[in-house]
Amino acid sequence: MKTAHDLVMAAKARIDELSLDEAEQAIRAADVLLDVREADEYAAGHLPGAIHIARGMLEFKLSAIPELSPRDLRIVLYCKSSGRAALAARTLQEMGYRHVQSIAGGIDAWCAGGKPVARPEVPAFE
Prior knowledge:
Largest sheet: 5 strands, parallel
Structural class: alpha/beta
Helix content: 40-55%
């Protein structure tokens, strides 16, 4: 029986995983930057310009949002540490998306590298 780790490693063997330095350039060239973490994780902080689609809803949302349906979109994905993003990247490849990349180490590596993180402003209640 395969473990989650086995599935992630198999996905990583078939996707284009970017180093932190490569990720910055890829994000600038991307049509879409996707955060595939859960909503609470996204709300706590995300890469600037990222849109949120949780991995569990990815296939359904991509099919329902016309702007995300072209299979030639340049897509960069990330999650917390890269496991969910690798699985999501592999799923997108299986759906026919041709230009999918994942950030190695996810947002954890991004933050450790001192890269910017967008955090929503919490309204002040006085």
